[in-house]
Automatic annotation (TrEMBL), chain A:
Keyword Transmembrane helix: yes
Designated name of the protein: ABC transporter permease
Entry keywords, A to Z: Membrane, Transmembrane, Transmembrane helix
One Pfam family this sequence matches: ABC2_membrane_2
Transmembrane portions of the chain: 20-41, 53-75, 96-125, 184-203, 230-248
CC per GO annotation: plasma membrane
GO molecular function: ABC-type transporter activity
Lineage per the UniProt record: Bacteria, Candidatus Yanofskyibacteriota
UniProtKB/TrEMBL annotation, chain B:
Name of the protein: ABC transporter domain-containing protein
Keywords: ATP-binding, Nucleotide-binding, Transport
InterPro entries, per the entry: AAA+_ATPase, ABC_transporter-like_ATP-bd, ABC_transporter-like_CS, ABC_Transporter_VariousFunc, P-loop_NTPase
Pfam family, one: ABC_tran
Gene Ontology MF terms: ATP binding; ATP hydrolysis activity
The ABC transporter domain, residue ranges: 2-231
PANTHER family linked to this entry: ABC TRANSPORTER ATP-BINDING PROTEIN ALBC-RELATED
Keyword Manganese belongs to the record: no
Length: 253, 235
């Protein structure tokens, strides 16, 4: 356990110092600032537009950062043979996978919170109230990113960064369609129903983490519902990280 | 003592990278493992430090398998042409390495800096590894291999890519470590250095051991290099 944290710490340091990451974050902050301009174009709906665009922006840039950092993380470790340093020490392959996951999650969380800070400031400076509801939305977004990081790590154990990125975007797409798929399953024939139900349970239901629309309209989400989403993320992450570790165990290094 | 019994390893079920290798290395000795490119040296050393598992055979480091986490507490390993987390500084990387061992966790900065002084990259300790030269990386690789004060040290081509001064420095450290009673196993191509450092050598060719024993007994009246080339060519 201790070694998992040691690896997480160095992973965090390594990723947070990436120049390209700085570029993306600066771009995100500029975008968040620029929502003021876009807001001022909408007559009377300024704060609403800023919140709408702002939360969407945090999500999109959060996704870009997650995929950018996640797609290469274990791949690089194996390809550049830095794993040799780790595995010749009292470190298990499970430590490596979990350490990478936690380090990456920390890096994604920090950058997301930075964007959240910029967003909150923008809203207040544009005459809105302190948007405390958005904190919940961004917290659930981080849960979604945690699921995606786990999936990226799983893919990057056995495939290239490009392929990992493509697969993850595919899962992202399907994951947000799942509630529709479930609906559709209910009205389908028997075979289709089984297949669609299987899809529903295998893929991550990412819609659980999207409460941005509600928040923008000042609709509060119940604590219970949020807690279920968090629990869902935790279970999904644990399973995927465990699978990634099994695959890494099988891998010839 | 390091006891290697009939280990074999194939990649993708085809290449016999290591073929029925057996070796005994006495505690406190320096063992040089030689062989042409692709002979199986790296494959063997990776199994010795628990990175990979042999398909057959067994390895004992002391009384335990290197696959046991506790064995690796007492192992130091320097991979060939090491790559690092290049956004970390040399000191940060060494601290990271040190923290992965129970017995060296929480080593003070001064202690870590002492090691960096030993391998002569102290001046660059706060620079990112990204900016290190090949030789500096090699030195850092050596530093992390001794950070836990290991009983067994495995080095995969430790002198590769070093200038003559660096080579002399690292050889000197290997000698000091040897005097401390450590067991050192290293792969090398640089036969003059092997000759100077090793008590025993093993020679591997196409995965098979073709000699193991004292240096002198192998080279007879020739230099180690000449005898090595002659032997390999005759196979
Ligand atoms: N990951 C791998 N997949 C497939 N084959 C491999 C792999 N690693 C090594 N081999 C093969 O195994 C054999 C032994 O390789 P190894 O790296 O152990 O040699 P070596 O003695 O260390 O060579 P060098 O002196 O060049 O470092 C070679 O034929 C090599 O092609
Ligand atoms: Mg080699």
């Amino acid at each position: 356990m201790k070694n998992t944290l040691v690896i997480a710490k160095s992973t965090f340091r390594q990723t947070i110092r990436d120049k390209i990451l700085y570029g993306i974050v600066v771009f995100a902050l500029i975008f968040l600032g620029s929502t003021v301009v876009l807001g001022s174009l909408s007559l009377g709906e300024e704060v609403f537009v800023i919140r709408n665009l702002g939360l969407a922006g945090i999500y999109i840039f959060g996704l870009i950062i997650t995929i950018f950092l996640g797609a290469t993380i274990v791949y690089d470790e194996v390809e550049k043979r830095t794993t040799y340093f780790l595995l010749s020490k009292p470190v298990s392959r499970a430590d490596v996978v979990m350490g990478k996951f936690l380090g990456l999650l920390a890096a994604v969380s920090i950058t997301t919170l930075l964007m959240l800070g910029a967003y909150l400031l923008t809203v207040v400076l544009s005459g809105g109230n302190f948007d405390y509801l958005s904190i919940g939305a961004v917290f659930l977004q981080i849960m979604e990113m945690a699921v995606l990081i786990a999936i990226l790590i799983l893919f990057s154990v056995f495939t290239t960064p490009l392929a990992a990125t493509i697969y993850t975007i595919l899962i992202l797409y399907i994951g947000h369609l799942l509630p529709l798929i479930k609906q559709y399953a209910l009205n389908s024939g028997l075979v289709a129903k089984y297949i669609l139900t299987a899809v529903y349970y295998i893929f991550p239901n990412l819609e659980k983490f999207d409460i941005r629309n509600l928040i923008v309209h000042q609709i509060q989400v119940s604590f219970k519902e949020s807690a279920i989403s968090v629990g869902y993320a935790v279970i999904y992450v644990v399973l995927v990280v465990y699978l990634a570790q099994l695959l890494l165990n099988k891998k010839e290094l | 003592m390091i006891l290697i019994k009939n280990i074999s390893k194939t990649y993708d079920g085809i290449t016999n990278a290591v073929d029925n290798l057996s070796l005994t290395i006495q505690s406190g000795s320096v063992f040089g493992f030689l062989g042409p490119n692709g002979a199986g040296k790296t494959t063997a050393i990776k199994m010795l430090v628990g990175i990979n598992t042999p398909d057959a055979g067994s390895i004992m480091i002391g009384d335990e398998s290197p696959l046991a986490v506790s064995t690796r507490e007492n192992i130091g390993f320097m991979p060939e042409e090491p790559h690092f987390y290049d956004q970390l500084t040399g000191l940060e990387f060494l601290e990271f390495s040190s923290d992965l061992f129970k017995n060296s966790r929480g080593k003070s900065k001064t202690e870590l800096e002492e090691i960096l002084k030993k391998v002569n990259i102290y001046e660059a300790r706060h620079s990112k590894i990204r900016t290190y030269s090949k030789g500096m990386k090699q030195r850092l690789g050596f530093a992390q291999a001794i950070v836990n004060d290991p009983t067994y040290i495995f080095l995969d081509e430790p002198l590769e890519g070093l200038d003559p001064i660096g080579r002399r420095e690292i050889k000197k450290i290997i000698e000091t470590i040897k005097e401390e009673g450590k067991t050192i196993f290293f792969n090398s191509h640089i036969l003059a250095d092997v000759e100077a450092l090793c008590d025993q050598i093993g020679i591997i060719h196409k995965g098979r051991l073709i000699y193991s024993g004292p240096v002198n007994q192998f080279r007879k009246d020739m230099s180690l290099e000449d005898q090595f080339v002659k032997t390999i060519k005759s196979l």
